[in-house]
Amino acid sequence: MSQGTSTMIARTRRSETDDRELLARIAAGGEDAFTELVRRYQRRFYGIARRMLGDDREAEDAVQTAFLRIHRHAAAYREEWSGATWLYRILTNVVIDHWRKRRRLGEVPLSATDVVGTAVNVERVDVDRALAKLPAEARAILLLCYVEELPYAEIARARGISINTVKTQLLRAKGLMRRYLKR
Prior knowledge:
Elements: H1 3-27, H2 31-53, H3 56-73, H4 83-105, H5 119-133, H6 136-146, H7 152-159, H8 163-182
Helix pairs in contact: 1-2, 2-3, 2-4, 3-4, 4-6, 4-7, 5-8, 6-8, 7-8
C-alpha cells in the first residue's frame, strides 16, 4: 500500500469516528456537535441537493430539512453504519421526496433563464438538464459516486440497495446522460 493510500484510509477512519462521535453527542443534546456537523457537511449537502433539484432555493430547503431530521433522529443512528453513510441516506431521501413532490405538482425542474449564456455556462446547463431528466434514484447514485466519490458499498448502504443495483443504476444513468447530452 502506498503512503498516499494509507494516509487517505487513516483520514477516512478518523472522519468516520468523528462523525460517529458527533452523532452520539447530538443525540445527547450537544448543540456544539450539531453546529460542527452542519459546518462539515453543509457545502457537500448543498452541492448534491442543487444538482439533483436544479434550484437554489429548493436545494437550501432540502438541506435544511435534512439537517433537522438528522438533529431529531440522531439517537436512531446505529454505529454499525458509517456516519457519512447515514447522513447521505437522510439527505438523498429528503431530496428525492422534494423531487417527487415537484413532479406531482408538474413543476419544471430547470429553467434556461437560470444561467447566463456563456459557453461554459451553456455546457453546465446541458449537464444540469441531462441530470434533471434522470430518475431521482439514478441521479442520487450518480452524484454520490462521481461528485462525493463514495465507494459502491457506501452508496448501497446509503440508499438501502445492493451493490449490484448501484452498478446497474450507474450504468443506466451514464447511458441516459450520454443520450441526453448528444441531443
